Amino acid sequence: HEPMLLLAVSEFMANSAAFTYFMAGALRRNISNNMLPRRFPLQLTTKSMGVFSPQLQEHSPAHPMELHLSARRQPLLSCHPNALHGALFSSAEAFVVLPNATRVPAFVLNIDANVTGKPTFTGNRLQGTVSLTGPLCLPHAGLRGLLVLQVKRLETLLKFGLWLFGVPWANSECCSCPVP
């Protein structure tokens, strides 16, 4: 006798939506230094990125940088009895921003990540947690010019940044809604 809402989402529906967004080019984001949290351990400048590529700082000292993130393939979602698993396949292209606003390509990284989301009910709230379930992979570093990029250091910092900022943000902002 109580009102009830039943909502069902299938893997097919979620993967179809991901395919549509991917094909429409909607899975792209440009990130500049002013978009990063002040506490983030790496700022988008050639000085900060010099830790990973000293040649970058030598060729372009004290210049801001910009990252262009995009999906290389559609994200994939799989549903399991106790969790949702997702696979993300992305590319990050870094540019040095010169004083005249020209963007000079620096390097391209392919980044693959596996995430797991687990829904939970607490009282009258639907909640959940998001975590990285597999290694964050940087399988290919397509470098431009003479830059040598220390990929392992960058991978470690990206993992740290995701655990410090990305996962807590997803857990606090995206995974809590009231259930009537």
Automatic annotation (TrEMBL):
<keyword id="KW-0929">Antimicrobial</keyword>
<dbReference type="GO" id="GO:0031663">
    <property type="term" value="P:lipopolysaccharide-mediated signaling pathway"/>
</dbReference>
<comment type="subunit">
    <text>Monomer. Homodimer; disulfide-linked.</text>
</comment>
<comment type="function">
    <text>The cytotoxic action of BPI is limited to many species of Gram-negative bacteria; this specificity may be explained by a strong affinity of the very basic N-terminal half for the negatively charged lipopolysaccharides that are unique to the Gram-negative bacterial outer envelope.</text>
</comment>
<dbReference type="InterPro" id="IPR001124">
    <property type="entry name" value="Lipid-bd_serum_glycop_C"/>
</dbReference>
<keyword id="KW-0391">Immunity</keyword>
<dbReference type="GO" id="GO:0001530">
    <property type="term" value="F:lipopolysaccharide binding"/>
</dbReference>
<feature type="domain" description="Lipid-binding serum glycoprotein C-terminal">
    <location>
        <begin position="1"/>
        <end position="177"/>
    </location>
</feature>
<keyword id="KW-0399">Innate immunity</keyword>
<dbReference type="GO" id="GO:0045087">
    <property type="term" value="P:innate immune response"/>
</dbReference>
<dbReference type="Pfam" id="PF02886">
    <property type="entry name" value="LBP_BPI_CETP_C"/>
</dbReference>
<keyword id="KW-1015">Disulfide bond</keyword>
<keyword id="KW-0044">Antibiotic</keyword>
<protein>
    <recommendedName>
        <fullName>Bactericidal permeability-increasing protein</fullName>
    </recommendedName>
</protein>
<dbReference type="GO" id="GO:0050829">
    <property type="term" value="P:defense response to Gram-negative bacterium"/>
</dbReference>
<keyword id="KW-0732">Signal</keyword>
<dbReference type="GO" id="GO:0005615">
    <property type="term" value="C:extracellular space"/>
</dbReference>
<keyword id="KW-0964">Secreted</keyword>
<keyword id="KW-0325">Glycoprotein</keyword>
<dbReference type="InterPro" id="IPR032942">
    <property type="entry name" value="BPI/LBP/Plunc"/>
</dbReference>
<dbReference type="InterPro" id="IPR017943">
    <property type="entry name" value="Bactericidal_perm-incr_a/b_dom"/>
</dbReference>
